[in-house]
Amino acid sequence: ARSDAGPSDGGPSPWAVTGIALAALLVLLLPALPLLWRVRTRSRRLTADGTDGDPAAAALAAWRELLDTGWDFGILPDGSLTPRKAAARIVRIGELPPEAADAAHRVAAAVEQVLYAPRPHPVTGLVTDVQRVRTALHAGASRPLRLRALLAPRSAARLRWALAARWSALRLRYADSRPVTAARRAAAALRRERQRA
């Protein structure tokens, strides 16, 4: 008697194996999401692709990267400070050596020029300056802080904020598109028309 091997043999079905493999992949990738997001963001900010060749956009992207790098290493960004004072704060708290301190100040000067000069001049070397500051912060950090900056960067909070904003916008769009909401808007418009007449 010949028996065909099939799903009724008691073994897992191909769909179950695929589902388990996808779940395992998700469990492995979820903790790496902040790391992957941070690497992608850094790459986009520090290449011409992320700024479309615009010198002002390149300076602002380098500045954002400098602030986020500091944040990853425990230096919270302070939006109330001017770029010059924010750079001085990163230098002071990060205890940067003179070469890295000069690099941070050059990035801040480029940003101030973009923000305040009538016609900002393109500045070169900002990517190198940001990398120099990042290297100095990394070298001066403890091992646990370096691991945290790599695996769970604090600046990944921006990812959570962006996702929350998108979710809120999606919910609002859905709420506005519901028939009940559309009917209420139409009724309110009719009431306004009647009051005018």
TrEMBL record:
Residues 62-121 form the Protein-glutamine gamma-glutamyltransferase-like C-terminal domain. The chain crosses the membrane at residues 15-37. InterPro entries: TgpA-like_C. Keywords: Membrane, Transmembrane, Transmembrane helix. It holds the Pfam family DUF4129. It comes from the Bacteria. The keyword Transmembrane applies. This is DUF4129 domain-containing protein. It comes from Streptomyces kasugaensis.
